[in-house]
Write a structure and sequence with these properties.
The protein is of the alpha+beta class. The protein is built from 6 helices and 8 strands; from the N terminus they run E-E-H-H-H-E-E-E-H-E-H-E-E-H. The chain has helices at 21-27, 31-36, 45-61, 106-122, 136-144, 192-197, and strands at residues 6-7, 12-14, 65-71, 77-87, 90-97, 126-132, 148-159, 162-171. Helix 1 (21-27) crosses helix 3 (45-61). The relative contact order is 0.12.
């Protein structure tokens, strides 16, 4: 796919290129970005060059990862956002914001625009968000953008050579008033108490397969 440009009320979302290498390198020096994202640490100039000149264009070209730089109308880089394909109909969103631009809602605004694009153009039906447990800033952005936090996955992230627990959440097309590409049949509300009172409860130890 050819890179696309998205426009929100305050931002321009576009693929980064060689002209953005210095800005990406400078922003990625911030300790929290290196602590909670997958960028290399220490983050060197060659890492920024590889990202802007190879990783980003390759992701767009092979439809595996769609990365946007988040820019103010002045051209200043305020953050980065990527949507990576995980399985048919499912993708994962990731993002970071430059330290001096946090707390202004830029990443949440960009996340909603990118999600709408992904649901309508990529035809995905589930956009996942994951973050290491304790990354409250990322969780706050996701929740403000409408993601439902679904729980904690044990040992689900590998970061800096260690396995870590992570939060997982999702955004669906219906959350934004959009149709799904495939029919979605949510499970009916389930209550353990009501199931037991109706006689449908089955003990996990009472089942025996018949040979």
């Amino acid at each position: 796919m050819e890179p696309v440009t998205l426009i929100t009320d305050r931002l321009l979302l576009r693929a980064v290129g060689p002209q953005d290498t210095d800005a990406v390198y400078a922003a990625a020096q911030e300790p929290d970005i290196q602590r909670y994202t997958t960028v290399p640490s220490p983050y060197l100039p060659e890492h920024a060059r590889s990202f802007t000149e190879q990783q980003v264009p390759d992701g767009w070209a092979n439809d595996s990862a769609f990365t946007f730089g988040l820019f103010l109308p002045t051209g200043r880089l305020v953050g980065m956002l990527g949507i990576s394909m995980r399985s048919p109909g499912t993708a994962e969103i990731g993002f970071w914001a430059a330290k001096e631009h946090r707390g202004r809602g830029y990443v949440g605004e960009a996340s909603l625009a990118a999600a709408r694009w992904a649901f309508t153009e990529l035809r995905i039906d589930r956009l996942e968000w994951r973050a290491e447990v304790g990354n409250h800033a990322s969780r706050a952005v996701a929740e403000r953008a409408g993601f439902t936090v679904e729980g904690t996955l044990r040992s689900a992230l590998i970061h800096r050579g260690a396995r870590r627990d992570c939060w997982v959440g999702s955004l669906l097309p219906s959350d934004l008033g959009l149709p799904s590409a495939a029919p979605y049949l949510p499970a009916p509300a389930y209550s353990v108490a009501s199931s037991r009172s109706s006689g449908r409860a089955v003990s996990a130890t009472s089942y025996r397969a018949e040979s």
